[in-house]
Amino acid sequence: MAFLKIRRIFDKQTWPLWISFWLPLLIMTGYFIYRHMAPFGSSSLLTVDLGQQYVDLFAYFRHTLLHDPSAFFYSFSKTIGGEMVGVWAYYLMSPFNLIYLLFPGTSITTGIFIVTVLKYGCAGWAFGWLLTKTKTQSGWLVPVFSTAYAMMGWMIANQLNMIWLDTTAILPLVILGLERLFTTGKVRWFAGWLAVMLIDNYYMGYMVVIFACLYWVYGATKYWENFKTFWIHVGKFAWGGFLAFCLSAWLLLPTIWALSQSKAQYNVTKIHWKLEYAPWKMLAKFVTGTFNFNQMPSGQPNFYIAWIAILGFILFFLRRRPKWPVKVSALIVTGVLLLSFCYEPLDLLWHAGQFPVWYPYRFSFVFCFWIVWIGAQALTEKLTIKWWQGVVMLVILTGIFGTVYLNLKHVSYVTTANLAITIGLAGVSLVLLLVPKRNALIYQIIALLLVAVDMTTYAVSSLNNISYVSQSEFGNYTSILDKTVKKIQSSNSGFYRIGKTFTRTKDDPMQASYNGADHFSSTFESIIPNFFGSIGQPDGDGVVTYTNGTLITDSLLDMQYFMDKKVPTAQQNNANYNSYIPVTSTRTDLVNYKKSSKLSNSKVTTYKNPYALGLGFAASDKITKLKVSKTTGDPIARQELIYQTLANRSTSGLISAQNFDEVIFQNVKKVTTLTGSVVNKQNLAKTGSIYFKFTPKTNDSYYITLGANLSSANASYYINGKELKQYPTYRHTIAVNVASHAKGKTITFGIQMKKTSLWLQNFTLYKLNNTQFKKSATKLQQSPWNITKHSSRKITGTINIKQKHQVLMTTIPYSKGWHATVDGKAVSTKKVINTFVAVPLSKGKHTVTLTYRPPFMVTGSIITGVAALGTVGWFVVKRRRRQDA
């Protein structure tokens, strides 16, 4: 019996699907082995976002499923805390991610290798399934078009965005559902696979929905009978889409809410009704090898497709069949897609009202699908075209290649060699279709080999332009981070946050599963970047990094531990050691903390912060009335205002501005006022430098603020001759620690200009009065929220409010998802400093529990439950009616 089942799987009908699966998978596996990707060498597939974001989220995925399921809803590894349903919906709902459960720690790069090639294979299989079930193609021509689809230009260019790749396997199944809707009237296949798409990745699912609407226009024309059937198709299409939404509502509704707090706040409000570039430039993307690093942040859409498929697409409009209304509808769909690639309003529509940050025209996969699918419908099994059709194709090819050749200087990503190779591939493909064929089977196999060569050439010539993170660079850093964090966690099972002076990615806390303060994702609540920017930390849309902490912010945000890279010994002082532990923070004030030899290792020194306030503490209720500007003004003064208000102490005297003892200008015109001045070089051909000197009269901590203009792009910075270690980009003023415990020692802060002039934006020296800081910290530590139980979404603790007019102040980011109970009774929370959760309390001892419930998840789950039960009930009733009949 088992043998018979195996034979059924590998029978005459299924072998084209197996080739469709294995051919693209093996081609890409061979290429990755050639590039020495782990586990086959010293490199890895990690590059750009895959290396800086996704790999850490995959590690978090493992941790959630294996150790902390509550982290599906909320995580304190997402900066200082954030909702996670939106993160899962965008990054982690792919069933392929289950493979990562088999690859812990540094071996996760092997899991990424396997998942990547499997997605190529599944894309080919799905397209082959569509061709087979619709009887569009059969035999060897199935893998011909499936391979062209699976290795399309979008796939190659976006394999580093592997969270999107599932779309290529699901889209053909959604379209198969639409085809069945037209031919059988059944909605279930369309609704089911569209629901799968929306759950797998709502962002790509949104684009699939738009394309499904376009495809429906084509399908309605293709299967036109009369107006009665037309309106039936309209109703069933609408019902299928609605049912798909209902089946995925349990995830979509909380995700929509999460987006309203994050990504949706950055939507473009002003639309320019214009072309984004000269449309002819799109023709250059029909040349092989036209993807490189410069095309990632901006460029034209990546839609290179095997030339046999393109010629088949042209043939669709040259053949007698289908009828002209079908051809017109196909032209309309094609025209809308092409216009979407260069007309700003349509481009914004496909991207849900936001211009992509890198990776433009992310929807070009639907265009690739469309070209291959239409081409597959046009080419018969004999692969033969008429001579007049060949002449038309030759004219079109001449126009495409001639235009590109005459404008090579305007498309730098096209080389003459690649253009020649492409002309050769297109020419061979055209000849193959023109040659009379006595044995079609042989020519079908030749066509498959030609497509394999065509798409392999594109993959190799494009991906050879991309550099990757070495396995050792990723593995060494990850091992050290994990080792250090585990030591801390084994010594303390309570709730606390950990800071560090080095960074591989902004999602290091998710990689090592600890509570940190860094994060980077597309679904990041805007209140955190706003707050971090206001207190002197580098921030951006969807990103924060806690590299510029002070004693005040460390205390406030409960940074109980700090990891600092040890100064390498003479033997270790080499480029490799420095590269895999990149220092991004200068914190001489860590000497105020207690160094822990037990928690340190050969690479990292761990400090314990005696001034950390815990996740919650009793604070003056004046904080509920404090209004703080978001990002304008001075971050150091803002820190003082917040901290002293919490402690109910004077908001002056903690921090004071200081003057420099001496300023030396070298090849720079002198200015009398420093802050806000613009300094200019004297001799433009020579280096311009400024040295600011001061000698601390106390052992207090000193900080210099640098405005966004004072970035590494405009100048280099030095402390006593050593280059300042600092995260390179920031859009608001940051605070840099330049001295601590340096009484009587001369400190020199040097600026070396990189341009002819430099704006000393918000450039000020400050002194933190350590004695006053300790008094405020001690007062705030008097009534801590003693946490007795904690998980990612529920925290319980006791607190003793000793004075009137106090609140439980927490550093949990405010969200409507947080619900509080005090002594078992539900109470309302307050949003303070426009950022954090606070709970009003009366004097006395209280037990306070904070529980996170994703907004609208219950509502969405009810909708999904009703839809699922209703669907199952409908099928049961329908089956019984058939049996009774």
Main pleated sheet = 5 strands, antiparallel
Number of H- or I-type helical stretches? 27
What would you report as the Rg, rounded to the nearest angstrom? 31 Å
Cα separation of the termini: 34 Å
Would you tell me the structural class of the helices and strands? alpha+beta
Spatial ordering of strands, largest sheet: 12-14-19-16-17
List segments where confidence is low: pLDDT < 50 over at least 5 consecutive residues.
none
The percent range for strand residues is 5-15%
Q: What is the number of beta strands? A: 29
Mean pLDDT: 94
Total count of domains:
4
Helix content: 40-55%
* Inertia-based shape: globular
Task: Describe this structure as you would to a colleague.
This protein is of the alpha+beta class. It folds into four domains: 2-463, no CATH class; 473-530 and 540-612, no CATH class; 655-768, Jelly Rolls, CATH 2.60.120; 786-853. Helix content is 44%, strand content 15%. The protein contains 27 helices and 29 strands. It has a five-stranded antiparallel beta sheet with strand order 12-14-19-16-17, with no helix packed on it. A five-stranded antiparallel beta sheet has the order 22-23-29-25-26, with no helix packed on it. Helix 4 (85-92) packs across helix 12 (249-261) and helix 9 runs parallel beside helix 11. 51% of the residues are buried.
Keywords summarizing the entry:
single chain, 885 residues, alpha+beta, Jelly Rolls, 4 domains, five-stranded antiparallel beta sheet, globular, transmembrane helix, membrane
